[in-house]
Amino acid sequence: MGKNLYELAIDHIAEKYKTELMAEEIDDVNSQIEEEKIDEIPVNFYSLSEIPFDKIQDFNVSKLNTFKDIIWDWRQEGSQIYKDDCFFSWDKEVSEGVSLLANENKYLCRLLKMIAFYSLPQNACLQNVKSFNTSKAILKHLQSLGKFLYKHKLFVDIQGNGSFTNTIYLTKEHFTEFIKNDLKDSGAIYDFAKQIKHWVGLSKSKLIPMDYRLNFEPFDADMYSKLAKNAEDNKGEYLPISIDTLSELVPFCIDNIEKNSAEILKFYSVLWPVIAGGDIAKTQPFEWGKAIYELLSMDLKVIDLQMYKFKDYSQVKMSKDLNTKLRYAVKNHPEWNKNNPFYLSNIWKIKQSEILNIALELGIELESIDLAIVYDVSKIKMKVMELVTELRNSCVVILFLVTGMRNSEMYLLEAGNCWQLKGSEDDFRISITVPKTSEGSTGDPVVLPVPEIAYKAFKCLEALTDKARVWGGSKKLMVSSTSNFGKEIVARSINQFLKRWFEDLGIEHIHPHQFRKTIAMFAIYQNPNNISVIRRLFSHQSLAMTLSYIVKMPGMAEEIKLAVIERNKELLSELLEAIDKKCIGGKAGSRIKRLVDESTIFKAKLNDDGWEGLEQYIQILLQDGLSILHRTSFGAICTNTHSGLVHLAPESCNCNVTDCNWSVFTANSIEDLENTIKFHDNFLKDDFCSEKQKRFSHKTIRDCVERLYELKGIDYVKSCFPKLIKENFLTLEAGGRNYGKQDTKA
């Protein structure tokens, strides 16, 4: 059965809002796909091309597993939010009914595992991988590469004699044909292309054995960018963030800000020159030994520095300065001078590992020379960078979530744009520059009230970027405080770093625009007592105040209207038809009808104005404060969601529906109203009907008659219930109501 005119009207206006909002999203997030930069952190990793495979088999890939295992399990070391599903099984199909673990596929499995090995955080030299949850997501896409190679019988021991065909006969056309015929959507194609690119990179770097390399690039830079853009463009419309995700993400971000930020900022204040790297590290005085001593004296809990102390001194790696200090300590030791006078001239030629052993044999306390000798400073640096990035991201998420600002507006935030009102303990404001409403280049400032957690998040970002802003000569809050120190983080990069972080946490990818969608849902469901997430972000007062401002921001009104329409299509269509056919009743229905009659924007009838008239109908409904609808008894529509985020089921209203301020009655209610009148009319005839029941039945009949009159008019009511309605009971005048004595008689 096709859609009626009213359903089509609802779809039409929804599509209109979607188009307007999608245009905003496209303008807001530059469509150019940037090449992801790899963080420059020194990492010690193996080249698998230089190691016999039987030794590779015993390499650790997790705390629980080695390279040869079928399952790589990271549940003891995965995301702080999602650990339980952080594992990967190699028991995958590479063709229908064909397992990767089949004996003929052992070389294919070996190749995929070697590629996967370099997708683990500790080995990811060509990718940005900071957590095992990200590794798991990457490994899932390796199955497509396995299917591609098996399809062409590459790395497959067909004869069972230990031989296989490698990539020597592969051409670009093989890859093009595969993505055209075998991959379903643009996202899967782009994921496949990323795996190929990684494989090519490992091959060029000679990190995997020669027989397993791919020595040409099937996708050039332009093709790769095109695939990335197609994947982004075809993700579909952005939806509000799921409650399940919010319930995990919001407490994590808030705890990070409220419980950890002070200590993270202290770590950063000590280590910032070495974290910034580059010219900063060369120009700023910094000594690891002094830094570690200072941090130990602070007794900070967010990082246990003792965990980074070498237990095996063969792992010690020293800078040139530390190496020199150690050799002088040995040279000046009395026992060394006494026992090795002939060796003095050669002390600078001794290997580092030997000089370490000599120092230990002489009883020299390495810590007394320099604390940096006994601590793994590269891992300390990496951990602090991870915490700093995590704090920044937590702050950005909170600011997005409580303001609904766009990427471009986040980029334009400047230090000093958030403040506490004088004389107030819990009243905070933020100034957001909105480029959409301005003819100039700088945009227009909009001041919003925000909850305290947003103020705390803003202040954390100010503290974190203080030195970077000075170095880069920028007032922007979005500047890098780690690598690319002092460089502004442009709008499109904000989405990129959040995407990477969400992958690391193991949660769904969230685009910044989804925070606006979520704010729209908060505006609909304003009762903070029904959802812990909203309670963590807002007090009841701050929620109402913040939303009253946010809904006036460019685009937010459309977001809210679209959210209402999407969740109320069926009932909105029914309301629309009821208004147009003038068959609407109930106190809320009468209120909506009055708004239509008095509206200055609705002047023509439906059939005259077509879609424009329909849109104006819906605008009027929404202007009445219509938020979320649900069906209740009598087939009526309730315009008030009584319990916040809980979508009520039919018949769940506890109020008197026929006399409720929030009920709308339509043609669907007529049969139920008539049956209710008949039921109570018969009830009143019963000899055992109590006085209390009589009063209730009289009122119910009176309310139902009034609703019927609103829907069908006095003539219809009289024709249906001629014996029930008497002149001394009810006088209904055209265009109004004038009730006489309320003595319904059988």
TrEMBL record:
Listed A to Z, the keywords are:
DNA recombination
Provide the GO biological process annotations. Answer: DNA integration; DNA recombination
ATP-binding among keywords:
no
Report the residue ranges that make up the Tyr recombinase domain in this protein.
359-565
Q: Which InterPro entries match?
A: DNA_brk_join_enz (IPR011010), Integrase-like_cat_sf (IPR013762), Integrase_catalytic (IPR002104)
SUPFAM superfamilies the record matches:
DNA breaking-rejoining enzymes
- Cite the Pfam families for this sequence: Phage_integrase
Question: Which parts of the chain are coiled coil?
Answer: none
**Any GO MF annotation of the entry:** DNA binding
Name-wise, this protein is Phage integrase family protein
Q: Which organism is it from?
A: Lentibacillus halodurans
